[in-house]
Amino acid sequence: MTSYDNRIVLEPGRAERHYWRDIWAYRELFAILAWRDVSVRYKQTAVGVAWAVIRPFLTMLVFTVVFGGLANLPSAGAAPYPIMVFAGMLPWFLFSTILSEASGSLVANANLVGKVYFPRIIIPSATAFVALTDFAINLAMLAILMVWYSFIPTWRILLLPAFVALAMLASFGPSLLMTALNVKYRDFRYIIPFIVQFGVYVSPVGFSSAIVPETWRFWYNLNPLVGVIDGFRWCLLQESSSLDPSSFSSALFVTAIFLWIGIFYFRKTERTFADVI
Amino acid sequence: MSDDVVIRVESLGKKYLIRQVERERYVALRDVIARTAIGTWRKVTDAVRTRDAPRGSSSEEFWALKGIDFEVNRGEVMGIIGRNGAGKSTLLKILSRITEPSEGRVTINGRVASLLEVGTGFHPELTGRENIYLNGAILGMRRPEIKRKFDEIVAFAEVEKFLDTPVKRYSSGMYVRLAFAVAAHLESEILIVDEVLAVGDAEFQKKCLGKMDEVARGGRTVLFVSHNMPTVRHLCSRAILLAGGHKVFDGSSEATILKYIQATQSGKALKEIQRMIEHFPPDPSFRLHRVDVVQDGMSTVDIINNKPVDIVIEYTVLEEVTGLHVYFLLYDLEGNLLVESLHNGHESGPPVMRLGRYISRGTIPANFLAGRPYELEINAAIHRVRECIPQPTPISFKINVTATGSVNSAYPGYASPGKIAPLFQWGTERL
What we know:
A: 12 helices, B: Coagulation Factor XIII, Chain A, domain 1, 10 helices, 21 strands, 27% helix
């Protein structure tokens, strides 16, 4: 451990030159924080697991009854309505969990931020990772649902991990922005439930993208979750739903922009976190 | 930079806005919006009335550190001393990369481990074993390193039997022992330690000191902040003295400590204290008017020990509040706390202070103090809520006590060596 090559210069406003290398060096901290959050979550509450099961199940039920039953909207091709809803809910819950958990994560870990150095981006990232555990539970529920309806997915399911990654990236940009803003303006957290509540209706969670009129498509596609959810349905449902290249490419584009803004703003404000937290 | 210098600090400064120093350091977006709206409205109305818009913002700058220069050589153990608010912690925070300097530059050669608090990141729900790994990772240890030291850490902390118990069930002593044990086994070229030895029972403190000794003798570079002068003298070869954000002395730890004590001794007179009190920022429930030390009806800081002394505190309680108390603390000049006394500590329940102006007199009895100088601090707090005196500027001043009492008066020229010299009852019979 006698490597004297790691020379550090601290100056005002100096951008961390080895920012990404630093993050790599702290990967163990990332892993252990993620592990801590997961283990505390399931240690503290047996309800934690139950909650991860009940919430999507009830949402699926409500959407199926309201959109599929009462409003009589068409499902995506041959897929039963509940399966279509569930395939849309998977990425939606991943997004909303990451957004709401990550945005408060730095403030919740204020004691660490004020007393130890590490790249701050590790904390919201670890939180985002924890959201994957709930996602895994939901995925298992979808599998059970598919067995129940004797619904067999195609080879496309192999591409699902790529869309999970896209969903995470799409959540991560806005989350970073919210996290940084929340450190500075503590009342920002009140905005998040609103975004989540609003978002579930402007994203194709309870309905299929196919029912959205052509004239609105451009604006509709600006919501990156549209591309992500369409992608999930394309992977999970049978030939019925086709992947719309325009929604997919605009999802990629908007995700990239949000990531850039999120990381940029986070890095810009990160240096003062310890002073204001 | 020469190979022997591991830390070089050049004209370092750190500026805070006063808003950040106050209790509520973050802002609410709604306040920002409201303030901007009001500000704009004022500008508009001022423009209409053709007045000049008031210049400058409402937040003031405050330099916690200014123009700090020093170098630390490899293997040096350097102490950093100074009163509360002198900038010690800010300096450590900059060196640990927690916060960024506002000006100047720091160059560090080597891996830095900093220990600003014992048990940072400990999670009450996790077991002792899990917390060792968690805390180790937070302090920058790698997993193999923790594994290798695991048994040593557990043995040092003496928690073998409770390794798989959540730390929320630990006694506070066990908790602190475990936390210190992890930190003490850090391997790094440079170790930065803030006042963390002031925890645990006496025996454990001794053990910690021994460990620190071992670290210091092991050729690592150590920066050590403490209020405990004997410890600094014992551990450090060199020390710097900070006051008001400036470095005022740099030399052998012996010389620096002397300087520190002298600076304390030429401390503020009561008049200065009075001026300071008048400029305190307002507190919602408490307003201090006057503090005084009175003996024989005279206000004085030079007292004798065979007569009682009154500590007088005059204040107004601005709203009915439970647990509000004024109190004084008596220190020796090396910063060791000797006595703390609360004005209503003897009452049965948490006392309620009603609205009004009060005067509290605490009497130190005759034949209690020794013939030596003390540091007297006066403070006010709401129990478990907050301190009512702004922390960086404690009201403290030196009092000189001349021994005229009966303790050891039979042996002229022999000063009582204790820090206090109460006159105890003795009964002796000839058998």
